[in-house]
Amino acid sequence: MENKNKQSAYQHVLKYTSIFGGIQGLNILVSIVRTKLVALILGPEGMGLMSLFSSTIKFVSDSTNLGIGTSAVRDLSEAFERDDAKINETVMTVRTWSFLTALAGTLLCIVLSPLLNKFTFSWGDHIFHFILLSPVVGMMAVTSGELSILKGARRLKSLAKISIYGVFLSVIISVPILYLMGQRGIIPSLILLAFVQMLLVIIFSFRLYPIRLSFSKSSISKGMSMVRLGVAFVIAGVMGSGADFIIRSYLNYTDSLDAVGLYNAGYMMTMVYAGMVFSAMETDFFPRLSAVNKDVAASNLTINRQIEVSLLILSPMVVALIVALPIIIPLLYSGKFMPVLDMVQIASLALYLRAVNLPVQYLSLAKGDSLSYMLIEAIYDIPIVLLIILLYGDFGMKGIGFALLACSIIDFVATLIYTYKKYHYSLSRQVVSYMMLQLPIGIAVYIVTQTLHGWTYWAMGVLLFVASAGISLQILQQKTALWNSLKRKLKGGHDE
Length: 496
What we know:
Layout: H1 2-64, H2 68-79, H3 84-120, H4 127-152, H5 156-181, H6 186-208, H7 217-222, H8 224-254, H9 257-272, H10 280-291, H11 296-332, H12 341-347, H13 350-366, H14 370-395, H15 397-423, H16 429-451, H17 454-480, H18 482-490
Helix pairs in contact: 1-3, 1-4, 1-5, 1-8, 1-9, 1-10, 1-11, 2-3, 2-4, 2-8, 3-4, 4-6, 5-6, 8-9, 8-14, 9-12, 10-13, 11-12, 11-13, 11-16, 11-17, 12-15, 13-14, 13-15, 14-15, 16-17
């Protein structure tokens, strides 16, 4: 019976990691097409310009939204366990605060546009561009608030549809504008994309709960606890967006827009595309961890199981990514982006550590420990800026890869020490053993990329991928009866 329960628990983690990973994978495939088209139309310089505008606006948004989109999920989840009156009241409070932060963020972006122009660009006058982009900050705040309502209500199908529709619409909208207008189309495309995304979310959200706002003193004060928790997320978000903003601005000042475009492409391939494995964290893993956050043994078990599945799924993907990058980069972007190859091959090794680290970092969120969350975020954000500035001058894009890997190691060690001392969390033997099996394969495949060429490169790359995938499939079969589950699905059966 115990073994069956254990199998069922692993099956649950694998199922939802696969479902949301699959949705994210579809999004990524469509995004690849969009990125490829945009890269061909704009080139590295245009991609760098779009990246600077996007990262700056995200920085303003993260600085002004009071973390409502994240902190509201906890309040809404609690409300959905109670009566309808409490649900409606909490939804109204979230929407009221989202509207207020949207208005404040828009106005602040307008007021700060000269300052944003000065710190973002070393050439030209882009003040008017930032004024035009100010409504995007407001729309992002509204979108974030409405998404938190859907997450709190556990409307997973709606969230999946929004994600899929959004990525298809991004291609349909942005590519024609950029094709017809070139770099002049960057601002209109960013505005229109934000509007369409907001419209898409509120269609689903307003259908669930018709819009109600209240600006009374009592209504606003009810959201203060949510705001206090959200401020910690804001500070963490500002640190993350601020680090990204400083890095991109530094590359623009010391090198060129081409460097910013290359960095953006490398970061997307390393951190964003591989993120499909982590897409189940917020929708499935986080609520499960929150439910047992006061029980140390149960929390440890929940985290370790998530790490095991994430690590086993991700490891073969990392090997395949590192080996296939000489093909993937021209396919996703163009031959002009090949200078980013070394950066991505090195930084990809950090994904092994991220597969372990990310579930552990959710522990402070599940406990509502905002100070610990900010501290853990700072452990990564501060060193990454310093190391990139230190290493880029001597090693170029390869130096950025070394910086990303070094910061991931620092973050990994510091997070495990801190959570052990603070929450008595420790890695299970299984997690350690799986890392000892998979990480050497990743290191070996990196060595292959640096030492072999021609058919020996591909032969060794395929051999290492088969080894990594074989290990993962064998362990997943033992833990989840994977083959039996697949057979039942093919025969039209259902898992219990």
